[in-house]
Amino acid sequence: MQQVDVYSIEKLVATLSCASSTQEIHAILESTLMHSGHLAELIKLPDELIVKVEQEALHLFGQEVYQEARAYFQFLATSRPGFEMYWIYLGAASMKLELYEEALRAYGIATTVAPGDPRPYFFSAYSYCRLEKIDEAKLCLQQVIDLCKERDQWQKLELEALQFLYQINERDDS
Q1: Total structural domains within the chain
Q2: Potential cystine with 25: which of 19, 82, 86, 163 (Cβ 3.0-4.6 Å)?
Q3: Do the domain assignments include residue 9?
């Protein structure tokens, strides 16, 4: 496997951070992964290090130290872009910091990595509501409902999405 210098990694992180659409992020990640695999493999990060960083990130998030947790999840997500939970946690930390556009970017990548996972759509709906983009929130919630249909593991999330959608519609009717 080809070695990548630090400059290339920094450039990739900067490029991902500046991407303006889910499609652009997807294209960048697809190109990177197609040519190289996981960044952690490229720069030879040991799995033990990734596990320690993940544990610290989760600890910080649990302690509500969202700024630092966000930085850790940014590192994890760019190191292992195929792990959707890193992107979901990055979005969640961003949401807690009221960085809703950043949260939406992270959730967008999570939907690209795991298109059948309804969670990033659900959290995106919340971010869209906070940005007063109600139509986008409704579309996300409908996506959650569609993804959850006939899947027992997502039954509770489907109910929450239906309740959330009902609340949004009630607010619209007022």
Answers
A1: 1
A2: 19
A3: no
- Please report the DSSP string for the chain in residue order: -----HHHHHHHHHHHHH--SHHHHHHHHHHHHHHHS-HHHHTT--HHHHHHHHHHHHHHHHTT-HHHHHHHHHHHHHHSTT-HHHHHHHHHHHHHTT-HHHHHHHHHHHHHH-TT-SHHHHHHHHHHHHTT-HHHHHHHHHHHHHHHTT-GGGHHHHHHHHHHHHHHHHHHH-
CA distance 103 to 154: 22
For 116, the domain range is 46-173
What is the domain-level CATH number for residue 101? 1.25.40.10
Residue 24 lies in a domain: no
pTM: 0.75
